[in-house]
Specification:
28% of the residues lie in helices and 28% in strands. The chain is an alpha+beta fold and 364 residues long. The protein folds into two domains: 221 residues, Histidine kinase-like ATPase, C-terminal domain (Heat Shock Protein 90, 2-Layer Sandwich), CATH 3.30.565.10; 122 residues, Ribosomal Protein S5, domain 2 (2-Layer Sandwich). Strands 5-4-3-6-2-1-7-8 form an eight-stranded mixed sheet. A five-stranded mixed sheet has the order 9-10-13-11-12. The chain has a two-stranded antiparallel sheet with strand order 14-15. It starts with 16 loop residues before the first helix and ends with a helix. This is DNA mismatch repair protein MutL.
């Protein structure tokens, strides 16, 4: 069949910047849990010890995250919501050492493009209890920063009518708001556990929802604590600890040549020490759970979804308890240059170098 000549009106053209912004923003935040996750990560990166997620109508009307972190400096007001503006990276190679949750400077910019309006109040604490109210346009440009407000140190970000410029996503959220709220709450449980897996500080973590025309209902209320066990108790009750034991593993995993080259080493073989810390159900019949709803995996304190690792855990557990699945909180501590956290827009997928070797070592 002869190839038809390309119509001149269909010639290849560059996509305009506005459309590029809307397209890429729609890939970064795809649902309610993604929007809340990005804001909570910003709060954790700001060193907050008190984080509140406040939803109105399940997040359909308003998503608001309040923290007592470091706040936004005045010189950063105009750039904080612009695409790919960040204090976390300067060059691509910095990805191998990054230890913050955010790093690409996409979250706030994307939320601006995906919602009707994004507003903030922020204070660095430099002027006592005085802060500034900021408002941003869909392109992330600062529209207003003249209004002074009473505000202790920290930042409040409010996202109004998310997905309003995207009718299909908006309708999907409105139709399935309860399901989306439950997915978000499950993910927030993981982020509530993050500071406790790091064993360095506690964070008071709260999530509430106010139905349209109804009362505010508290969904999660985790007091500030530095103990993983006390955090689990606060989230699911003291009885949830009855059948849990400490997860404390350490093993070596052979490092692949590509990783060695990146480290500047000539040896064809080397090994990484991997530590796994957390909690797991006792390996006895009746001590597990009927499903996998309480399994939380982290890599260097970052919540993730490592399919092969999760399968390894469950397969091993099934050899002791065939009828149940374990409760798991497992934080894998590995060298930052032995994993790739820049795999998916939501950063929930982490590529583990030598993953096959790690899984085999985990099963032994």
């Amino acid at each position: 069949m002869a190839v038809q000549p390309r119509n001149a009106t269909n010639s290849i053209k560059a996509i305009d910047p506005t459309s590029i912004h809307q397209i890429t923003s729609g890939q970064v935040v795809v649902d309610l849990q993604g929007a809340v996750k990005e804001l909570v990560e910003n709060s954790l990166d700001a060193g907050a010890t008190n984080i509140e997620v406040r939803l109105k109508d399940g997040g359909v009307e308003v998503i608001e995250v309040v923290d007592n972190g470091s706040g936004i400096a005045p010189e950063d007001y105009s750039s904080v919501a612009l695409k790919h503006t960040t204090s976390k990276l300067e060059k691509f190679e910095d990805l191998s050492t990054v230890d913050t949750f955010g790093f690409r400077g996409e979250a706030l910019s994307s939320l601006c493009a995906l919602s009707e309006k994004v507003t903030m109040t922020t204070s660095t604490g430099a002027r006592s209890s005085m802060g500034v109210a900021l408002e941003f346009g869909m392109d992330g440009q600062l529209m207003n920063s003249d209004k002074k407000v009473a505000r202790q140190r920290g930042t409040t970000v409010s996202v109004h009518n998310i997905f309003k410029p995207y009718p299909v996503r908006r309708k999907e959220l409105e139709k399935n708001v309860k399901r989306e709220l439950n997915k978000m709450l499950h993910l927030m449980e993981a982020y509530a556990l993050v500071p406790c897996t790091r064993e360095n500080r506690g964070v008071r973590f709260a999530v509430s929802n106010q139905a349209h025309g109804g009362k505010k209902v508290e969904q999660i209320n985790l007091p500030r604590t530095t103990s993983l066990r006390s955090a689990v108790s606060a989230l699911w009750g003291r009885k949830s600890l009855d059948n849990l034991i400490d997860l404390d593993l350490e093993f070596e995993v052979e490092t692949e040549r590509a990783v060695l080259r990146r480290r500047g080493k000539d040896s064809s073989k080397s090994k990484n020490t991997v530590r796994v810390r957390g909690l797991i159900s006792k390996f006895s019949v009746g001590c597990g759970r009927s499903g996998t709803d309480r399994q939380f995996y982290f890599v260097n304190g970052r919540p993730c979804s490592p399919g092969k690792v999760a399968k390894a855990f469950n397969d091993v557990y099934k050899t002791f308890n065939m009828t149940q699945s374990p409760f798991i909180v497992a934080d894998f501590l590995i060298p930052t240059d032995s994993c790739d956290i820049n795999v998916s827009p939501d950063k929930r997928t982490i590529l583990l170098h030598s993953e096959g070797s790690l899984v085999e070592a985990l099963k032994v």
